[in-house]
Amino acid sequence: MPDGSAWEVRLPAAATTSCREPDVITGALPAVMLRVECDREGFGRAREFTHRTLRDWALGHRGDDAAVVVTELAANAATHAVPFAPAGEAEVWLGIALDAGHLVLTVSDPCDSGPVLASACGPGLLEHGRGLAIVDALAEEWGWNPRPPAGKTVWAKLSARPPH
């Protein structure tokens, strides 16, 4: 996660942690994080972790949307960052935090290049390239920040308010 902040935790025996230091990227108060393995099982664990965390925070009503956003962001990292990362630097981290009525989801990866929202191209359904459009549709806002010395954090904010 961000450069030496409290989010950057590398535990050999565990892949999750929680912390209470402010995040330099989003300004949110970090709550939990998970190292994501970039495969089908790893994405499943990220979705389960997201659902469980939000249920624990009484935000289960945001679980499905948050799980979709997490999966799309992690899949983008696995596809566009991990294959090009130097050996030993291909970690992807998921962060979940609350910030002033918003659920903040972050995915950090080792690639410096920012995400690209693909434009609609034709009437057919594309098999790939729709992930950020889905994130854009579900999130109130999203963006990315560089993570010096290398990498980036992509973030999305969802309302934490219950449905009407």
Present the secondary structure layout.
Blueprint: E1 16-18, E2 29-36, H1 40-56, H2 63-80, E3 92-99, E4 102-109, H3 131-138, E5 141-146, E6 152-159
Structural class: alpha+beta
Largest sheet: 6 strands, antiparallel
The proportion of residues forming helix, as a percent range, comes to 25-40%
Q: How far is the first residue's CA from the last residue's CA?
A: 35 Å
Strand order of the largest sheet: 1-2-3-4-6-5
Give the overall form: globular
Radius of gyration: 15 Å
Strand content: 25-35%
Strand segment tally: 6
Please write the string of helix (H) and strand (E) elements. Answer: EEHHEEHEE
Determine the number of helices (DSSP H or I, runs of at least 4 residues). Answer: 3
Contiguous runs where pLDDT drops below 50 for at least 5 residues: 1-24
Average of pLDDT: 79
Descriptive keywords:
164 residues, 6-stranded antiparallel β-sheet, 6 strands
Description:
The protein has 164 residues and is an alpha+beta fold. 26% of the residues lie in helices and 25% in strands. The chain has a 6-stranded antiparallel beta sheet, with helices on one face. A hairpin with a 2-residue loop joins strand 3 and strand 4 (102-109). Helix 1 runs antiparallel to helix 2 (63-80). The chain is globular.
